[in-house]
Amino acid sequence: MQGNQVLPGKTTSGSRGRSLLAKISDSDVAYSWWHSPVVVIATAVLLVLVLACLFAPLIAPYDPFDPASLQLMDGFSPPMTTSSFSGNHYLLGTDAQGRDILSTILHGGRVSLFVGASATLFAVALGVGMGLLAGYRGGFADAVVMRIVDVQLSFPAILIALLVFGVARSVIPPSLQESAAIWVLIFAIGLSNWAQFARTVRGATMVESHKDYVAAARIAGKGPVKILATHILPNVMGPVLVIATISLALAVIEESTLSFLGVGVPPTQPSLGTLIRIGQQFLFSGEWWILFFPALTLVLLALSVNLLGDWLRDAINPRLR
Amino acid sequence: MTHPVLSVRNLVVDFPDRRQTFRALDGVSFDIAAGEIVGVVGESGAGKSMTGAAIIQLIQSPGRIVSGEILLNGVPITGLPQAEVAALRGKRIGLITQDPLTSLNPLFTIGQQMIETIRRHLPLSESQARTRAIDLLSEAGISDAEDRLGAYPHQFSGGMRQRVVIALAIAAEPELIVADEPTSALDVSVQAQIIGVLKALCERRGTAVMMITHDMGVVAETADRVVVMNKGRIVETGKVADIIRRPSESYTRGLIAAIPSVADARDRKPVAAGVAPLVEVQGLCRDFRLPARTLRQRFAAPVLRAVADVTFEIPRGTTFGLVGESGSGKSTCARMIAGLLPPSSGEVLMEGARISGRKGMSGDQRRRVQMIFQDPYASLNPRWRIRDIVAEPLHGPNRRAGRRDLEEQVAELLRKVRMEPDAMFKFPHQFSGGQRQRIAIARALSSEPEFIICDEPTSALDVSVQAQVLDLMASLQEELGLTYLLISHDLAVVRRMSDFIGVMQRGRLVEKGDTDQVFDAPQDPYTRMLLDSILDISKVA
């Protein structure tokens, strides 16, 4: 009778022949998720918000973009009122034009989330690519990329986004500006966020590229592009995922800030930021709900994504287990 | 009645986690008398370091002592409050750790660290402590100790640092010293000196020493008694000579048999004369530019010659062992021969065709050269399945079309390295170190190479696993007619495996020749020194 015994504990289950779902629910990450109530709540809030925004055209009680359905007489209805004029019920009240706030939030959140997610995706692609190049090549390429990163990180992201936006506005012909606005916004926010991905990936790439499995691939005759794509990239994506979550929240806030400043999406496609800008005009005249609910949505969205990202960073870090 | 200095009674340590409880130590009992050196040996995971950690009560969370006692001079120290345990450490129990680079604070001078430690434990004034620090350092074999008090740890070599750590450990005249792998991070020649210092100091002071090591050679040369551990339990305890010569338990017998010794002449077939060389290394040099510190150096950067004019050849079907201490340039040599690093000058020829400098290598030449790496944890991509890892070098004409064929090919390779073909669907983390090294060998074999460079292929493995991997390499050589370049710091491994041997020192090849000749009648003074300083089980007192 030799050997370290494994004493019977709470559960003992083999890893063979179980469904994927069972494996996921048994993993350490799932365990840590289930055991932090704050994260569970954050996930639930985020899921509700994202799904509601995603299916806004189906869920929203009214179509805020259809001028025919707007009831001007219902303007400034407070929350939870049924209009005596049109018989419509407004859960979160209406704005000056009689638009249902709930519906505008759902549609606006959709724009915000789309811009935030696309900008983050763009930032990840650019940052990871530059980071891989700098980390693997080293030398001159590394020096150039990292100095750009240093310079960019010393400016607030919003300034860079404003700069890009300003330049784009003078370059793009006025006739296209309306339709291109959203893409310019994505480009501007993405460009202001790539630097931190580049820095993280560069460090991780330098570590990974000195490991022997990369040497083995080189001996096998693989070229740098193939090695980067198949060997190094999958091994540096862990931290990228974490930053991307937190960066998503930042991108949504950034979009709102830009829209609030009036340089974001056009008023025909209001985002959360546009709604907040409109709402703040009425704050001191007593119509608080026009500002309050879009702002609350933005806070909830950013907070839940942030909490989730923060938890993810700790959960996938084996040293903190 | 006198008590032993240290007495461990039925010690049980558990590591509970959310699924199950792992029993790291299970009923460990042993004594150490004053002035006695007891070696605690075992393979990784045997619980030897855990025993040391339990004695100084620094078990990492969530581990805890479940039952059993630890007595220091007859007084139990388990369950004492933290403050009292902390007072024991350093004062009554000295500690020597493996890595002298991390156990000294790089921001303080040696003198500051010595004086601080001495004054914490002994009621001495600053100048008295200083005098004592100088005495201790000279006793530990540091010359000009007075001048060196102002030096920082990075100005010391690894061996010197370990001497400082020893001086720190004995500073407060402890009754017991726990030494956890005190020489494992050091070169052979330094290892022997450190062991000598430690032994002399403890004999003079009558300090009891618990020497934790995986290296039977270290125990053979230093310890009075040895405790053999396996999987959290003590297998056998006894006098060193008895255990090494007449082990009674089957586990110990296996362990002893697996340890290669420099005294064992190789039982290899003699190499037939006149076999044409497969690989020729001619005048290989490699310079590294050092970072410039001054403006002048910017224009003429100082150069470190890591490999200088190395020339040797390897006949087909034989093994050439390249030995040397750390920094001797043997790994740089290996990387140049493998084509991972371009040489500064010189070339590597394979049947007359140049293979050094990766760019000039054709696909077929590349196929013929493969490499096995030291660390099987870093040499397999953790995100790839074994099937894809093993099949990676397969491409071009060697890669048969279709997934079914590929899997067949991989299964065949896995069988060659004595593994189940099912393994191909798993990931590297599901395998032990020895199994991973087999997978690495299977990958090397997949391009049907003729020449394999093995860079410290077994130094990350336990002795019994090392023996299996070496056996596998030898039988594959016979089966497939492979030619090996074996790079190792372990002379016993090289003696066992090689037909020819080259000894490197500071980038130069100081001696080369037939293995038995070099081992039995070394010509170069450096080779002689190296062979003399090996701690080997054949040297047991």
UniProtKB/TrEMBL annotation, chain A:
One of its GO terms (biological process) is transmembrane transport. The keyword Cell membrane applies. Its main location: membrane. GO terms for cellular component: plasma membrane. It is found in: Cell membrane. The chain crosses the membrane at residues 38-60, 113-136, 148-168, 180-197, 232-253, 288-312. Gene3D superfamilies: MetI-like. Belongs to the binding-protein-dependent transport system permease family. Pfam families: BPD_transp_1, OppC_N. Residues 109-309 form the ABC transmembrane type-1 domain. Keywords: Cell membrane, Membrane, Transmembrane, Transmembrane helix, Transport. This is Peptide/nickel transport system permease protein. It is a multi-pass membrane protein.
TrEMBL record, chain B:
The keyword Nucleotidyltransferase does not apply. It is a peripheral membrane protein. GO terms for molecular function: ATP binding; ATP hydrolysis activity. SUPFAM superfamilies: P-loop containing nucleoside triphosphate hydrolases. Keywords: ATP-binding, Nucleotide-binding, Transport. Pfam families: ABC_tran, oligo_HPY. It comes from the Bacteria. GO terms for cellular component: plasma membrane. Residues 6-256, 290-531 form the ABC transporter domain. Its main location: membrane. GO terms for biological process: peptide transport; transmembrane transport. It is found in: Cell inner membrane. InterPro entries: AAA+_ATPase, ABC_transp_ATP-bind, ABC_transporter-like_ATP-bd, ABC_transporter-like_CS, Oligopep_ABC_C, P-loop_NTPase. Belongs to the ABC transporter superfamily. This is Peptide/nickel transport system ATP-binding protein.
